[in-house]
Amino acid sequence: MESAEYEESVLDYLARYAPLVDRGVPAEADAVGPARAVGPGDVREALERCQAALGLESTGVVDDETRAAMSRKRCGIRDPAAVTASVQGLWPQRSLGFGFGDLNSGPVSPDSVRDGVSAALRTWEDVGAGFSFYEVDSEATADIWFEWRPTDDADYDMAGVTIAHADFPPFPPEAAEIVDRPPLPLHLEVGEGWITGADPAGYDLETVVLHELGHCLGFEHTPLVASVMYPSFRRNWIRRELHVTDRDNLRALYSA
Ligand SMILES: [Zn+2]
Ligand SMILES: [Zn+2]
Q: What angle do CA 225, 195, 179 make, to 5 degrees?
């Protein structure tokens, strides 16, 4: 199958989000992604892996279901090559400082942001893996730092269907994608329709923050739709509770 047979939007999605596969692609190809950097057969392979990462059947064919999945707004972190839940870095400590940048310019009131974030932090705390969060005023002393950011976010491009991103614990430093030491960014795209609750007007802030905190604790994406680590989000929808596998995975990671 020729790559020309794939729509531009599909190639763009693969370039941004599809699992990178180790097949000798030069490092500089990462900037445009595997879809454009390699031959037609590799585009199909990238599509199949992408479909698996989204919990779809790996057909290598762009059907309506695939097109719909690719049109959904999502987290900007690239999907992992392995379809099992995997992990990047791990925190050496269990008590993490969380802070907020300027909330006054955001589409949701500062109080609503604080409420949504606090609830999401509690949800992860309540797993019983020993994590607790405390609020800090200064970015310099934070482990995770929340900010509203524009589409052309300076630390991580949020073009395409990306509406949020975070980063993995930088222990070791190379485990993180963006930073090499705390604070980890937890950034929401300011221009999206953010709301509190399930509403057709936009995306539930707590739902997305709960997902991004999963990255901050070390989780990659999973194709399991019921997990909070599934990569995409819907309007008029909330996912504020952890799936049993999310809880089990956190306990397993940090039980030592
Ligand atoms: Zn994500
Ligand atoms: Zn950012």
A: 65
